[in-house]
Write a structure and sequence with these properties.
heterodimer, A: about 120 residues, mainly beta, seven-stranded mixed sheet, four-stranded antiparallel sheet, B: about 110 residues, about 50% strand
Amino acid sequence: QVQLVESGGDVVQPGRSLRLSCAASGFAFSEYMIHWVRQAPGKGLEWVAAISDDGSNKYYADSVKGRFSLSRDNSKNMLYLQMNSLRLDDTALYYCANVVIFPAGVDIWGQGTMVVVSS
Amino acid sequence: AIQMTQSPSSLSASVGDRVTITCRASQDIRKIVGWYQQRPGKVPKLLIYTASTLHSGVPTRFRGSGSGTNFTLTISSLQPEDFATYYCLQDYTYPRTFGQGTKVEV
């Protein structure tokens, strides 16, 4: 079964850290760039970060650059998002996703893990 | 970062209506755009990739068009299950960016 399963979401105070995990199964995880997309309550989708298939290239949204860090372990089909210096506006449902728009279409999303930053 | 300006932000429609949603990129992104549907409480679902290619299993009433900076998603005859929020996404360069979303409601 093709799936991505996120974990690690929690309620944390501003300034603290949290690590999200994403477990992949059912597809060739090591061949794909994987993304994190988040959605604040009642708001739209925001692309957060992506890591290349071999982990050598990482990309971040300006809103999280310098605070969030991606890593992956292809031997375990795992992806990690280390979130530091969390802010109130980081509160969101965080999706792990394998999405490809060019040249082919690939669309695999997890169900999301909720991060709440609150004092 | 490339801005994706989506319009309208919401629209009211009825079953059977033809619906058009547009997305304008702040620079030329060729045809490297996708369209997503998100129903309330659900995970986003890819409808269209490379601007005009229908993703597997997506009904043919959905059509994407455009290139360069202007893109359109058209639903030819709105069905009850199509009431949802739609997003465009550019995959031309990083950071990737979504449009703000268009909520299609009754």
